[in-house]
Design a protein that fits this description.
The structure holds two protein chains of two kinds. Chain A is mainly alpha-helical. Chain A has helices at residues 4-22, 26-63, 68-88, 93-125, 131-146, 149-154, 158-193. Chain B has a six-stranded parallel sheet, sandwiched between helices. Chain B is α/β, with parallel strands linked by helices. At the A-B interface, helix 1, helix 2, helix 4 and helix 7 of A face helix 1, helix 2, helix 4, helix 5 and strand 3 of B.
Chain lengths: 205, 276
């Protein structure tokens, strides 16, 4: 029963949402909207449950003197921002100040780190240790040359080579994978919907 | 609530198909037909054999190595949710998590699951708890085993990178929907010398996994993962069905290429009109 009931709910909700996508029926559209609203409510409860895990883990860390500084910073930020948001609202200048002054620049810094990581990942990937890696290395060098002035210095029409690599073999491969992935996604969803695949309820088959 | 439902009933219109979505409906029915036919075939005893997927075989090897080194295994089911178009990728990640958790429990390896999505978090917790309970090692399950880090993408990435580096994990398994954080996580694990297995169906992130991970599951290999590691006949049957749909797609591709070469656009027009 622990698994059957969620499976039945999943099937009914999934079927209703599929029908809503293909049938122009007012009732289905309204029911679909209602289900999505419930989804938002469930997600809000899930955030509360997840936040509890965060608090438990970091309180334990503080008690066990493990990464105390990190855990205290996190707990302080969590309680402080939640308190500020509840007391003054998320549109208040105080809340926005901390959000825009701390979280946004730190997120931008993390994103900027990608540039360095791309370089280090490319360095490792471009070692021609086998035939596939050699193909990767040669295509990458050809493409990189096409994207800098050096390519045009080698030959005025050099850009056509890098464009061809991107638009013919690369695009063909990508489209093949996209089609196969889409079929896999539909098949996975179908298995879950009809209850064949229930590992997400825990514990395997 | 009664008045709300009355409003819904009153708004109920006539049952009409969206014509512009007919082809999508036909595609869904076609895939469903082949998938269920594959499952039916497998149930009758004709279980298909699928090719070796090195990335999946490497999961056991990576967990074994982590056990020998006495270090943790880090698993992440992507940062996608369960309600958008990336939901199947998250489900595929959860499917493989079941196997990873069971293997870790069996070997006695420490498992750390990190989550970005709050809805996915309790599901991963339940999967790991059940896997540990099934293996009789529920006492190994701690609050730190399955951790929710943050629902902010880069806050999650920073936190997960910190865990990977501080715990010096021996294996990093990332299976699900990934965005810009994919490379951050993979590079953090590469720096501590972890065996890495990455899988996603998001085309923009696949090159990063190919460049950084020891093993990469490309696109639909990820969806076959659960079936392949468990050897479950029914799910293997559905993969057979998927392959038949691929054959239909290849035939359509050839017809489309021939038509376009001959200057006809009928297939394009058909998709433009009915394939919304």
């Amino acid at each position: 029963m622990r698994r059957e009931l969620p499976s039945v709910v999943l099937f009914v909700v999934g079927l209703l949402l599929i029908l809503e996508r293909f049938l122009n029926v007012g009732l289905l559209a309204e029911v679909g909207q209602e289900i999505r609203t419930w989804g938002i409510i469930v997600a809000a409860f899930a955030v509360a449950v997840a936040s509890m895990n965060l608090i438990v883990v970091h309180v334990r860390n503080v008690r066990q003197h493990k990464n105390v500084v990190y855990s205290l910073t996190l707990l302080l930020a969590l309680v402080g921002m939640a308190g500020l948001g509840i007391a003054t609202g998320t549109d208040s200048s105080g809340y926005k100040f901390w959000y825009n002054s701390l979280l946004s620049p730190m997120s931008s810094a993390m994103f900027a780190m990608l540039a360095f990581y791309i370089a280090s990942a490319a360095y490792r990937a471009f070692i021609a240790k086998n035939a596939e890696a050699a193909v990767l290395l040669i295509s990458a060098v050809l493409l990189m040359l096409g994207n800098v002035a050096l390519g045009e210095m080698i030959h005025p029409n050099y850009g056509a080579v890098s464009s061809w690599i991107m638009n013919v073999p690369n695009l063909a491969g990508q489209r093949g994978m996209m089609i196969a992935s889409a079929i896999g996604a539909v098949a996975t969803s179908l298995r879950v919907l009809v209850g064949i695949d229930r590992t997400h309820f825990g514990g395997g088959e | 609530m009664d008045s709300r439902w009355r409003q819904i009933r009153e708004k109920g219109g006539s049952m009409v198909l969206y014509v512009e979505r007919l082809l999508s409906l036909a595609t869904l029915l076609l895939i469903s037909f082949f998938v269920f036919w594959g499952i039916f075939t497998a149930k009758r005893g004709n279980v298909p054999k699928i090719r070796r997927i090195p990335g999946l075989e490497a999961i056991t090897e990576a967990i074994g190595r982590a056990t020998e080194l006495g270090k943790a295994v880090h698993f992440n089911p992507g940062i996608g949710d369960l309600t958008s178009e990336v939901a199947p990728q998250t489900l595929a990640g959860l499917d493989i998590l079941t196997y990873v958790a069971q293997t870790c429990a069996n070997y006695g390896a420490e498992l750390i699951v990190t989550n970005r999505n709050a809805v996915v978090h309790p599901i991963t917790e339940e999967i790991v708890r059940q896997a540990y309970a099934n293996q009789g090692v529920i006492d190994l399950m701690k609050p730190e085993t399955v951790r929710f880090l943050s629902d902010e993408q880069f806050a999650y990435a920073a936190s997960a990178m910190g865990i990977i580096q501080r715990e010096r994990v021996a294996a990093n398994i990332m299976i699900g929907a990934y965005y810009a954080e994919a490379l951050l996580l993979a590079e953090a694990a590469a720096q501590v010398g972890a065996i890495q297995i990455g899988a996603t169906a998001r085309m923009y992130q696949l090159p990063f996994f190919v460049a950084t991970c020891d093993y990469t599951l490309l696109g639909d290999e990820m969806y076959a993962g659960g079936a392949a590691v468990t050897g479950d006949a029914v799910r293997l049957g559905s993969i057979l069905g998927q392959d038949y749909v691929k054959i239909v797609c290849i035939v359509l591709g050839i017809i489309g290429a021939l038509s376009a070469t001959l200057g006809s656009t009928w297939l394009n027009d058909l998709f433009a009109r009915f394939g919304n």
